[in-house]
Amino acid sequence: MRKLAFVSLLILTFVIAGCSGNASGTQEYPKKNIEIVAPASPGGGWDLTARSLEKVLTDEKLVKENINVVNKPGGGGEVGWKYLKSKDAHTLAVNSSLVLTNNLLGQSELTYKQFTPIATLATEWQALAVPADSKYKSATEFMEAVKKDPSKVKIGVGPGLGNDDHLSIVQAASEYDINPSKLNFLVYQGGGDVVTALLGGHVDAVTTSLSEVKDQHLAGKLRILAVSSDKPVEGLEDVPTWKEEGIDLVFPHWRGIMGPPDMTEEEIAYWDKKLSKMVETEQWKKVLENNDWEGFYKNSEETKKFMKEQHDLYQRLVKESGLVK
Amino acid sequence: MDISSFLDGLSIAVQPINILWIILGGFLGTIVGMLPGLGPATAVAVLIPVTFGMNPVSAIILMAAIYYGAMYGGSRSSILLNTPGDGSAIAATFDGYPMAKKGQAGEALAISAVASFIGGLMAVVGFIFLAEPLANFALKFGPAEYFLLMLLTLSAIVALSIGRMIKGFLAMMVGLALSTVGIDTQTGVYRFTMGIPHLSEGIDFLIVIIGVYAIGEVLYNFLNIDKQKKEKKKVGKVWFSKEQWKRSKWPILRSGPLGFIIGVLPGAGGSIASMISYTSEKQISKRTEEFGEGAVEGLAAPESSNNAASVGAMIPLLTMGIPGSGTTAVMLGALIMLGLRPGPLLFEQQPETAWALINSMFIGNLALVIINIAMVGLLVKILDTPAKVLYPIIVLLAFIGTYTLSYSVIDFFLLLIFGLFGLMMKVMDIPIAPLVLALIVGTDMEQNFRMAVLSSNGSLGVFFSSGVSIGLVILTMLSLCYPLILKLAKRKKNMSEDEDQVYKSS
Predict the structure, then answer these.
(1) Which of A57, A146, B71, B484 has its CA 20 to 30 A from that of B330?
(2) Number of structural domains in chain B
């Protein structure tokens, strides 16, 4: 009986959810509820980005229409973005550099050009970290050792080659005249496993998002040698940037949002207006702070240009990394 | 341990609102744990929007309660329907379901709740005193050690397949083969995905569990639905006997700490913990031959172990900010959103939060054992439900559970394929557990093996390079040779009996 009640409740929920999608008329965009696609399972980074957007846009009364977050996990974003491609301008999707690299690595037919850039929202920075008692005291010392014999230095990365964690160090190596395809990577399941491996001394260094290692650094359990930001990160003033170490590299791990192909000028302008306001709200700033993200807002036009630059950079890095012949 | 922080934490945990969250979370966890496919990770994820408005401390207490609540619930459907709700409840089918078939469903449900309670309690005490050293111990586990731990888990297949060893190994090979589907993390190569992007992340073992167990069981019963006896099934008492307690007491006390330690290792978790404690109890028991036929200790041991593991999994999360399981990974994401960042600074900067959680686990386990024992009387009624009502409900739940895993209809086809596969295995009397077990550990085992060999530049010596790894190798060897030892012992016994007879007759 109890189960029956549970099931009928579920069905009722689906029916209600199904009905609430309709609303029509000749008024301006948006004409109906907004859907934000998180191309991942609940709880991950993309999901949290989508849910934060939903919450801030609703709480601050920036968007009057209902906003629903839909999870479409699979294929490193592929499933969710394919879904987005089939929808109208009332559906948007969260993205990151995977929208570029999936295609460059030959894992997807989709290219960034098939979507409408809406905005770049936030960024994290990449960090290179070593154990607290490591013999490498600085990023240049580390790179020097790698240059001497790349096979001797084990670098932990996760969850897969071709992501920003991996490519940021590929770029650093390339700037330092090291052949990045010679680097010795051990690939772990995720960012957490990489940090455990470093703390346990199973790898010589790791490349990961700054947030994964920030607290460990502050607690003195490991040492961050360099961050990929343009200026020192707040709260971590003792950690130099790659630039300060003499290696010309700024590597954002950005998150943004995009729409289906062929959105109109009017629709794009709507989001430029709303999102530029949203990033100024206190609540959004709190979201950034809690996640250790940094504001990185670019409107649709700027994002379009940025994506092109990023695409060219990634194309070069993927080639140099030896992942694609 | 810091007494004043402990008391601060206690005073937060006993606030009425938090006690309410604990009970609510525990109850919800029990329910989702029971339903095949809906697990704690899904439940926590679905609750994320709810926790947005909550105080971070209440949120972490609620989410943890769901997590260990699911460990209590998972075995309910294993015992009653031979359908584990989650990977960590598989071991409960080995003896729990036979007990229910023998008319001891009530006893089985009661002992498993009590075993979970004791295991959980021991783990919380362990947490208070041993969090720091255990976290450091877990760090010693490199790729080689993980590989050996997975190998030890797989060696359980030998004990599970006695009498039908070839079939057991066949099932294991199929499981290992299935685990290779998806993107290979070391090289980024796609394996056996057949161009379907959905398969690039591999085949979720939960779909296989739901398929071979739930759908397979329904199909199997469908074969002889007309032959089923109409008489009312016996459900037994709602409490276990003194004799049953005496048999389970030591297995429970041994499995708790074992499960706790395995739970601390990131990536190991409840499935491995319950499997290792089941096989080790089977191996040291004097009643080995009763295991698999409804031995009460064969149910109590894994139940104690998986609940202890769920508490242990909180240690890397709280002390290092590293999620040790799927559920803790979702929890970490949600907590960061709330501005609470578990990690090395948590015990320094917000000790009361950490201690509130630890204390809440005491209260939660107490509440859960009461909830679960109170529900025994209600749950055994499931056995009285006519098959034509029960089975459609199971199938419906299986489909809902599968959909929540990745919101994709491709999984439905996988579910049906594995359902048929499960039916085939049951008809041919091939043990199912080796298949599922191999699929659960297969991917990690392969990746860790390759990482270990990569990091040692190809030398296999890395598998004998530390005390932990040598210990694991020895345990694996013992576990593998154990049927041989058993046979030898039997032969010796028979021989001495023969001699006796010869002596008497002469």
Answers:
(1) A57
(2) 1
